[in-house]
Amino acid sequence: MTVRWQPLDGDPHLPIAYREVWGPRTLPGVVVLDPEDAALLHEAVPEVLDALLALPEELMGGDVRRYATALGLRGARRDFLVAVGDMPRERYGRADLYATDDGWKLLEFNVASDLGGLDRSIASTAAGELCTALRPEAIDTLSLVAEALRRRSAAIGRTMSSIAIVVGSDCSPSIERMLHSLRAGLVEASGVRVEVLPLTALSVIGGQVSGIDGPIDVVLRYFTVEHALSPVDGEIVRTLVQGAREGRHVLWSSPNSSLFSNKAALSVLSRALDSGRSTLRDAARHLLVPSHPVAGAPSGPDGFGDGDWILKEATAAAGGGTVCSWEVDAPTWAAALADADGSAVVQRRVTPRAVDVCGIAYNVVIGMFVVDGVPAGFDARCAPAGSGDVVGWASNERTRVAPVIVRGGS
After folding, report:
1. Main-chain dihedrals φ then ψ at residue 375, nearest 5 degrees
2. Residue 379 in contact with residue 367, Cβ under 8 Å?
């Protein structure tokens, strides 16, 4: 198992919109994976995703409410997710992985449509053109997403002529700026009109959703369950959900993805595997990291006392909502556990193999995309070792991105 860094011989040709967003935060080179590692992940990661999506049936006989309750969800959030639980479950997401001395480990599986890093496949394919000696493989993730959206449109009898990347009304300027890079990439990949719009900019007349520039065929969902419960955005979210049910437009993906992206879902899967109620082949099972719901936290020196664990709020994203037991004193850790939401989990610490980047040791998170159950490319987030154990935008300002290629086989 090898993850290594290689400088690029030249400057990759990248769109202006991409350079404006990611240029200042991109490391000068490329992350290289061995073909054996890529093959293992290509087989194991989609298997884990399918196991997550099958949990309500495997464990609860299809009872989505019981499953949502097992995740620790309560109240209006649970009620909304149960209401959309019968919508299509898309085999779409991004697995975040570390290469460790004990093999590849899955930190979390983002089963959602609001994925970061989709547009960075542009950099990976461009980097591959500068590494011809490696006979590299780099997948164009955005083109696979565009093809999936086109298929969804065809399935409801529509021709995809427009896409709206829709965010909540409270979207931060920094996230909106990133999404304009995604917009430029999707225009290139799909060949259709693409807008970035807040929910409040949408109108619905006669069942037709429209944005600033005209009718919308596909809503690429970058809003969350929080917006469905919001007094500002809730009504239009419910309208979008109903329109998707009626085949008036594509909603990619359904909000029910939160049932499987929830941090507790991997913990539920682990317990199902331990009890024999779910199965995975060895390579896929070895990816999983020990985790427990806070409500069922074990005690003692190997539990949540002196052990190395990370607390993750179930609905947090981009590295936010986390507390590391080894970075705080015992009273602070105990208070964090006591104050945690009922759906929060604690996960055993995972120590990555450091990657040498121009003489500096970096922790590298490899993101692997899955589109329609098929491997759909890699992404990398990198932070200097010692700058923080969570490599995410919200938690570590030294986080950088890098293109990823797979070295060609012999």
Report:
1. -55, 135
2. yes
**Diameter over CA atoms, the chain:** 62
**DSSP one-letter string for 152-175:** HHHHTT----EEEEEE-TT--HHH
pLDDT digits (tens, 9 = 90+) for 197-213: 999 999 999 889 999 99
Chain centroid offset of residue 410 CA: 32
What is the side-by-side order of every strand in the sheet holding 218-222? 193-198, 162-167, 218-222, 250-252
Model confidence, pTM:
0.92
pLDDT tens for residues 78-100?
999 999 999 999 999 999 999 99
* Nearest of 185, 177, 141 to residue 20 by alpha carbon: 177
Q: Is 367 exposed, middle or buried (0-12, 13-18, 19+ CB in 10 A)?
A: buried
Please tell me the chain's helix, strand, coil percentages from 3-state DSSP, rounded to the nearest 5.
40, 25, 35
Nearest to 139 by CA among 392, 370, 409, 391: 370
Alpha-carbon distance of 341 to 322, in angstroms, equals: 12
Q: Taking the CA of residue 60 as centre, how many other CA atoms within 13 Å lie in the half-sphere pointing to its CB?
A: 17
Unique residue bearing structure tokens 């890098």? 402
Q: What is the DSSP letter of 316?
A: -
Question: Quick one: pLDDT band at residue 300, thresholds 50, 70, 90?
Answer: very low
Phi-psi region of 156 (alpha: psi -120 to 50; beta: other; left: phi over 0): alpha
Provide the angle, in degrees to the nearest 10, between the axes of the packed helices 141-155 and 121-128.
Answer: 130
Q: Which amino acid is at 362?
A: Y
Beta sheet of 404-406, edge-to-edge order: 3-6, 30-33, 404-406
Cα(381)–Cα(200) distance, rounded to whole angstroms? 32
The confidence band for 24, taking pLDDT boundaries of 50, 70 and 90, is confident
226 within 8 A of 75, measured Cβ to Cβ = no
Of 20-24, 115-119, 313-317, which gets the smallest average pLDDT?
313-317
